[in-house]
Amino acid sequence: MNIHDFSKKFILNDKIKNIDSYLGLRLSEFLREEENLKGTKVGCNAGDCGSCTVLIDNKACCSCLITLAKVQNKKVETIEGIKKSELFAKLKDSFSYYGAAQCGICTPGMLMASVALLRKNNNPTFKEVEEALSGVLCRCTGYRKILQAVSNVNKRFKKEISIKPTNAVGKRLERLDGKEKIEGTDIFGDDYYPKNSLIAKVIRSPYNSAKFKFGNIKNWKKNNPGVEIILTAKDIPGINKFGVIPNFDDQPALAFEKAKFKGEAVAIIAGDSDTMKDLPLSDFPIHWDPSKDTMDIDEALNKNNPKIHDKDSKDNILIVGKVKTGNIDIEENKAFEIEGELETSYVEHAYIEPEAGSSWIEGNT
Ligand code: FES
Ligand code: FES
To answer: What pLDDT, in 10s, does the model give residues 209-248?
Structure first.
């Protein structure tokens, strides 16, 4: 297949769209950046959070995992496309009544997954709703309100919204900004950036552990007009470390000379959007010298293995803690009985909303 084939088409919110972009482009990126349909959110960009859920031929799909090539001749619907439907109006009322949208970043994804379910089954059980929405994460509601809103959407619920100060206590209050959150028109940090903003790409370590050296970065920049700036650890003023918990504030913003995990950022390249869209990074001047990696606790504790944080620490133990249980009578409290050794890998909390924002100076302040 020719990846620049201009004859491809699909239906987007009832309109025929010619695909004249790169066919490998993520559908989520196409919707948000080229069609300005910001109701489709992007959290993880990796298929984990579901905030990018759209309907493809009536099925709920993560648009961050689908390329434009995959939607040829298919019907794609986003929250903007279903907003006028009767089903959406009912869901909107129900979400509003149950207080199912708090910050609202997951709400478009939740609603798209709900529509996919309700088109097939207009009276789903709580369990069926749970299953249908299980691919969309919510950081705010604890899910209960959302599940109630969807499973009761076709049941009659009593509207008892009141904003009279005399009888406000104990009454449901409709959120003043609820409409925007439910319709996906509320603006989040990643939904806006000033016109002509530079676009950045990050060079990341392909190895779990490797030393690296940059080649002639200045020359590479000269050969790629449109690239405005290249930043490495040397460009970071002050201490190149972050983290808010004492003893954990050891992660460099950009690795310096050694990468300690696969995917660690080592350089940032920023340029105008046209340049950055097609900028190949395979010839970026960096030389990697991979070293033995340390992948589990036993390997890390083995004194013969290299120190991961070789400069600052004596061994590979970052922090030692103790859990105290008090006087639990094991016979009486069987529910608390624990036996054996427990270990877990490091788990980062799930992503919902990108850490993003824009700021600018107005006037002489
Ligand atoms: S699943 Fe697509 S952005 Fe998270
Ligand atoms: S309302 Fe679900 S993430 Fe905030």
So the answer is: 999 999 999 999 999 999 999 999 999 999 898 877 776 7
Q: What is the pLDDT of residue 162?
A: 46
Distance CA 232, CA 97 (A): 50
ipTM attached to this prediction:
0.99
Of the ligands numbered here, which is closest to the C-alpha atom of 60? Answer: 1
Q: Given ligand 2 and candidates 51, 96, 98, 102, which is best to mutate, with the most ligand atoms within 8 Å of its CB?
A: 102
Residue 53 alpha carbon, nearest atom of ligand 1 = 2
Give the number of whichever ligand sits closest to the CA of residue 49: 1
Tokens of 102: 């708090």
Architecture of domain 1-192: Orthogonal Bundle (1.10)
Facing residues of 265 across strands?
A: 204
What confidence tens digit (pLDDT) does each residue in 38-48 have? Answer: 999 999 999 99
Give the pLDDT mean for 257-265: 94
Whole-angstrom distance, CA of residue 117 vs CA of residue 58: 9
115: nearest Cα among 58, 172, 154, 195: 58
- Tell me the CA–centroid distance for residue 153 and ligand 2, in Å: 19
| CA dist., res. 161 & res. 171, Å (int) | 7
Every domain of the chain and the residues it spans: 1-192, 199-290
**Structure confidence by residue, pLDDT tens digits, 171-180:** 667 778 888 9
CB-based contact 104:182 (threshold 8 Å)? yes
**160-165: long-range contacts at Cβ-Cβ below 8 A with a sequence spacing of 24 or more?**
161/97
Q: What is the DSSP string of 56-120?
A: ETTEEEEGGG-BGGGGTT-EEE-HHHHTTSHHHHHHHHHHHHHT--SS-SSHHHHHHHHHHHHHH
Strand bridging mode 75-77 / 199-204: unpaired
| DSSP E strand stretches across the chain | 9-12, 15-18, 53-56, 59-62, 75-77, 199-204, 210-214, 227-231, 258-259, 265-271, 286-290
The fold adopted by the segment(s) 199-290 is Aldehyde Oxidoreductase; domain 3 (3.90.1170)
Task: Report the nearest atom of ligand 1 relative to the CA of 42.
Answer: 3
- Report how far ligand 1's centroid is from the alpha carbon of 47 (Å): 4
CA angle at 150 for the pair 148 and 152, rounded to the nearest 5° = 65
